[in-house]
Structure formats: structure tokens, C-alpha cells
Amino acid sequence: MGYSAFEQFEIIRLINIHPFYGNMDMSITNSTIFILIPVIIWYGLYTYNVSSGKIVPGRWQSVMELIYLAMINVIKDSIGSAGKKYYGFILTLFVLIGLINMIGIVPYTFTPTSHIIVTLGMSVSIWIGCTIIGISKHRWNWLAQFLPANAPIALAPFLIIIEVVSYIAKAVSLGVRLGANLTAGHLLFAILSGFAWTMLTSGGMLTIASVFPIVIVLFITVLEMAVALIQAYVFTLLTAIYINDSIHLH
After folding, report:
1. Helices 59-78 and 87-103 meet at what angle, rounded to 10?
2. CA distance 99 to 97
3. What does the alpha-carbon distance between residue 250 and residue 240 come to, in Å, rounded to a whole number?
4. What's residue 98's pLDDT?
5. Which residues make Cβ contacts (< 8 Å) with residue 117, sequence separation at least 6?
6. Dist. CA 5–CA 7, nearest whole Å
7. Could you tell me which of 31, 10, 14 has the C-alpha nearest to residue 100?
8. Residue 124: alpha-carbon gap to chain centroid
9. For a Cys-Cys bond, which of 15, 177, 187, 202 suits 28, CB 3.0-4.6 Å?
10. In this structure, what are the phi and psi dihedrals at residue 21, rounded to the nearest 5 degrees?
11. Closest by alpha carbon to 78, among 242, 219, 212, 250?
12. Whole-prediction pTM value?
């Protein structure tokens, strides 16, 4: 049986844990491991940065400070002064998604964020959190966002339906955007890599011609690294915008 480009998305159960409540499966999978690894790395980097705190920063401290400043700018531009309390969440969200995406580029690893169920779980959780923030801050006035100001009464039912659907779509679009982009990139990378390997092992002129797909694969690798960070940034930026919409009703 030949290799399939979809094998890289297969969930593999590593440690079986029998459900202790109903049919809930608590087994440890490759997805679990590659979510925990970035958490451990982030904890180590954060602890090292805080403990070192040198006036003249080293290499890792400089990288961390750049990330800190980038996330501060995201909060300032998207939320303003009211977003200070969410800084830790925004920073952690960006770093963890970025690390998960970057580690997933390494051969024989796994990318949890390429599974829509993972990214949807994240986006729906953020959406619920933003909804709770809006309701707790504005109470009943929170419902006013579903009816634009000075809208004709005759159009009110249609406008409310459109606004409600648009609001609910945020929970889906945020996760689908991240998952779809990573899935497409990984599939393209796997297909081109398989094509290059087939040409390389065929012998003759095909081996020489395999230089071209190999160069393309290297280019795709660099592109995938950029996409990994860009998608983490976009996810974080949109989260900050959603938090702003909950704090300052538009």
C-alpha cells in the first residue's frame, strides 16, 4: 500500500486510558503530545526570560522581548487601554499556536492545529468567552449590537437575523481559517515531497530533473514557516478584535 498525503493527519492512540465517566476517551494521542510539547517549551522560555532579566538581553531574551512588544502593539491597536488585563492571554495564545504550527513542519511530527476540531474548539471557546465579557459588562444593552442604530423598524427583523448569524459565524470562521490554511499547506508539502522523492529514486534523467521539485519543496518549507507564524498572528489579532467588540459595542 502506497503512502497517502492524508496519513500525516491520522490520530494515533499512544496510551490507552479507559473512560472513567460514560464514553469519554481520555487516551493519550499524538495530538495530545504535540500540544503539551509547545506548552512545556513556552513555560521554559518564559521562566528563563523572567529569571534572566538582563539589561543587555541575550539571543532568547531578545526574541521574547520582540514577541512581547508585538503583542502589546496588537492590544493597543485593537483594544486600547482596556485590553491590559487580557495581555497574558493574547501573548500565550500567539506563542502556543505559533509553536504548534512551527513544530508541525518538522518531518514525522504532528500538527494539532491542522485538525478543524482542535481549531474550532479554540475558536468556540474564545467566542463564548467574548460573549460572557460582553454580557457581564453591558448586561441587557449587549443585545443592542444586533440592531444597527437608526435602522428602519420594517427592516429590524431581517437586520437582527443577519447580525445574529454574523455574530455566530465568528465562532466558526476563526477556527476554520486556521485549520484550513494549515491543512492545505501540509497537503501541498506532502504531495510535492512525494513527487520529488519518486523522481529522485527513479534513476536516469528523472533523478537529475528531481532538482526542480526539491527546490520547490525547500521554497514551500520556508513558505510554510511564514504561514505558521502569520496564521498564529491573524488568529491572535482577530481574537483581540473580538474582545474589543465585546468591551466596546460597535
Report:
1. 120
2. 5
3. 14
4. 92
5. none
6. 6
7. 31
8. 13
9. 15
10. -145, 110
11. 242
12. 0.85
The one-digit pLDDT tens for each residue of the chain (250 residues) are 455 666 777 888 887 776 666 666 677 888 889 999 999 988 887 776 666 666 666 677 777 888 889 999 999 998 888 888 899 899 999 999 999 999 988 888 888 998 888 999 999 999 999 999 999 988 888 887 877 777 777 777 888 888 889 888 988 988 998 888 888 888 888 888 777 777 777 776 767 777 777 788 888 888 888 888 999 999 999 999 999 988 887 6
What is the 3-class SS of the chain, one letter each residue? CCCCHHHHHCCCEEECCCCCCCCCCCCEEHHHHHHHHHHHHHHHHHHHHHHHCCCCCCHHHHHHHHHHHHHHHHHHHHCCHHHHHHHHHHHHHHHHHHHHHHHCCCCCCCCHHHCHHHHHHHHHHHHHHHHHHHHHHHHHHHHHHHCCCCCCHHHHHHHHHHHHHHHHHHHHHHHHHHHHHHHHHHHHHHHHHHHHHHHHCCCCHHHHHCHHHHHHHHHHHHHHHHHHHHHHHHHHHHHHHHHHHHHCCC
Q: CB-based burial of residue 39 (10 Å sphere; 0-12 exposed, 13-18 middle, 19+ buried)?
A: middle
Task: Tell me the pLDDT tens digit for each residue of 76-112.
Answer: 998 888 888 899 899 999 999 999 999 988 888 888 9
Cα-to-chain-centroid distance, residue 1:
33
Residue 59: Cβ-neighbour burial (10 angstroms; 0-12, 13-18, 19+) = exposed
CB 123 within 8 A of CB 172: yes
Q: Where are the domains of the chain?
A: 5-247
What nine digits make up the cell of 65? 522581548
Residue 198 and residue 3: Cα distance in Å, rounded? Answer: 11
